[in-house]
Structure formats: C-alpha cells, structure tokens
Amino acid sequence: MTAAELGTKGRQTRSAIELAARKLFAERGFHGTTLADITSAAGKSPAVFYRYFTDKEDLLAALAESFLHDVVEPSGLNLHLPDSPDDSEFFTTVVTGYWNIFKQNIGIMIAVAQLAATQQRFADVQNKFRRFGIDIVIASVRHAQDQGHAQGLQPEHVAPPSLCCSRTSPRSS
C-alpha cells in the first residue's frame, strides 16, 4: 500500500516503520536488521508491518525509490551552475550538499549495495544512484565548455571510476 493510499494514521505508521528501518539499516546493515528490530524500534507490532510491506526487501525498495524520486532527482533539477568554472565556493557547496544528502540516507545506500550483488532489482537501483552522479559531472563539464573551458574533455569520460565503472549487475549464484 502506497503512502498516498493511506489515511493520516496509516501514513504515520508507515513513516515510523520507514524511519526505524533507515536508522537500523545504517547502524546494522540490511542483513543485520530483522523485521522484529524494525517494528520494535517503530513502536509497532510485527503484524502491522505486513499492512504496508510484503517483506524487508519490499520495504528497502520503497525506501530506495522514495530516496530517488523525492530527494536525488529533484535536487539535480535545482542545480544551477555558476557563471565561472573557477567558482570553487560553488563546487564546494554542491559537493557538501550532495554528501549530506547521501550521508542522511546512508542506511538505504548500504542496504541497496548489499543486495545489488545478488539481486537485479537492487543492482538497477544502485545504477540509478550512480547515473545521477555521472549526470551531475557531465552537466558541470558541459557548462564549463560552454564558457570556453575544458575544451579537450569528453564530458561522458570524466566521471570518477567509482561512479561509472563498478559492477552493475548481480553475481550469479
């Protein structure tokens, strides 16, 4: 059941479960966190969990999609590049801002990474996270080129290897 389909009490319960999961995934990782841990931390009974999610993986998928659609993608739409590529304060602010976004959601990132190695569904989510980072780098290089800088660079080839060159599909069992 999506948050939009819920009443006020249902949204509060779902939110409490999601908040508890974010915190516990950051502290213990996905595999180190049980449904009982999550519902206990949320102050809810284990049975209530199943009104909102089919299992722990479904919860993680909902958290990851929410993170992508509510935080990551909109933040990229608001990125206004500076007039000068020499504006180091701007770039420091942008990098710090994105670091803080990811740091606040580190539990989701860790859990997705843990499952991406074996499940295509989470490998796809991890690739979306990476693609966002790559798109920001490409936009920055193109903007610099529009201003006469970095003419020798291929924007698609300047993203850090950690964003573009890691494994993108799960290992076979």
Automatic annotation (TrEMBL):
DNA-binding feature ranges: 34-53
Region feature Disordered, mapped onto this chain: 149-173
Keyword Calcium attached: no
Name of the protein described by the UniProt record: TetR family transcriptional regulator
InterPro entries xref list: Homeodomain-like_sf (IPR009057), HTH-type_TetR-like_transc_reg (IPR050109), HTH_TetR (IPR001647), Tet_transcr_reg_TetR-rel_C_sf (IPR036271)
Gene3D superfamilies associated with the record: Homeodomain-like, Tetracycline Repressor, domain 2
HTH tetR-type domain span: 11-71
Signal peptide: none
Keyword annotations of the record: DNA-binding, Transcription, Transcription regulation
Matching PANTHER family: HTH-TYPE TRANSCRIPTIONAL REGULATOR BETI, HTH-TYPE TRANSCRIPTIONAL REGULATOR RUTR
GO terms, molecular function: DNA-binding transcription factor activity; transcription cis-regulatory region binding
Organism, as annotated: Mycolicibacterium conceptionense
